[in-house]
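Co-fold these.
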Amino acid sequence: MSLSRDQVTKIAHLARLDIAEADVAKYQSELSNILTMVEQMSAVDTKGVDPMPHPFDLGQRLREDEVTESNQRESFQAIAPQVEAGLYLVPKVIE
Amino acid sequence: MHTLSIAEMAEGLRAKKFSSVELTDAFLARIAKFDKQLNAYVTVTADQARAEAKKADQRRTKGEDGPLLGIPIAQKDIFCTRGVKTSCGSKMLDNFIAPYDATTVAKFNQAGAVMLGKTNMDEFAMGSSNETSFYGPVRNPWNTKTVPGGSSGGSAAVVAARLAPAATGTDTGGSIRQPAALVGITGLKPTYGRVSRYGMIAFASSLDQGGPMAPSAEDAAILLRAMAGFDPLDSTSMDKAVPDYAAQLSASIKGLKIGLPKEYFGEGLDGAVAKVIGEAIEQLKKLGATVHEISLPNTGLAVPTYYVIAPAECSSNLSRFDGVRFGYRCKDPKDLHDLYKRSRGEGFGAEVKRRIMIGTYALSAGYYDAYYLKAQQLRRLIKNDFDEAFKKVDVIAGPTSPSVAFNLGEKTADPVTMYLSDIYTIAVNLAGVPALSMPAGFANKLPVGLQLIGNFFDEGRLLNVAHQYQLATDWHRRIPAEFA
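Predicted complex below.
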């Protein structure tokens, strides 16, 4: 399995990762090697095997619909990169 | 004081031979003296530790008692600790002061344990050598040219060098057991759902599990008792009573059926390691256990399956690091897109980026069935292997790692080579069963770990077998000469 340069750039974009132009070839070869190793999976016939998402075949636990969290905006925003008037700031999105 | 077991420390505190403040100071002094050689702590919380020790002494004066009251421990830097930097070994969280405590941390606080500091680790727990940490590699106390294993390499090193009596770790594909093996301590990965994941920074949510790392099974039993239990804040926590693990240690293992999976003793296993493992199994036979050859036929599929499931879950979990609400933010972002991409590109290291990209690819449109779904089907087959095995035997034994500690830099060039060093530990996480690694001797002057794998929620039996072995051997008491 080998990924093209374009594929690596596209994956990096999907993952919102800035990859330096000079590093693309390195990731291309490393990711291709990993996918080649992963390809051993396809040798096994898994027709009819139930996928296993979790060690216990359980559904989500439910609870009463009541307020359990207290407002901690101040302590959470104290560690934010940029806040103003209780809001998180990001670069302008709409002109 | 640093050579005492946790039970002996608690006895000393009870008998007023020393106070928690004195005990804590003794370990802080060892950290100040030795940690430069190991780089095992990211943060040492000396002042807070002394304050907590003083509080523990006061609680004891008031008549309180408990197996961990006043006992110093170290926390892996993946567990959120309120008011203390929680870096997860990453530049992304280098500025992150956790606003709350992980459940595991809260439980240790309630028990009166004293936190000495936060231990170094592979970035976001992704690595098998502790070389992916933003804070630099941790060194193995037995030979500082070698790695301590990973990802809980800092916790492993501090326990091996007795810079803490015990520590917490987390294990997604072997991250407690492999470092425990490489530094010669006892480390247990509990059954999935046994220990709360709340406040434990997520890597792969269906595999991650916290557990104890300590010199002996007896110490690990005390820690596990404090860590385990149902937590409504973790949606995959199991509501199941926590047994008194320490009370189960003394049972005889006469008649215990041990399975030896032939796949764990084949090609790829270092000959010197195989010899030590063979001797450890002979010792278990002397204690009355019987040995049976078994097969875990899908062992070879564990690494490929894991390197789809873990990266897929990691790519999803790590999408929360966006440079907006907490953590690293790039300088002068041009627009929102630039903010996301550069904050993540600059904040994450190479191994984390590789895994995010593999996961993103495996989950992307058109590839889901071939990768993620296929891996989940293989995961079922791997789990079925264990179910079949436990119909015939009580525990499974084998090597934890195919080799002893390797040199720093030896496996960093090729990620796949590094991945294969976890060949004996990964299937356990996929299945969800518990397993521990315990010191079994030395090969080339470096520690060898024996792995014991148990059925679901059979942690007590694993600790019992390890304790009985440790009553008959002294590998778990060995301390590297430089740190004696």
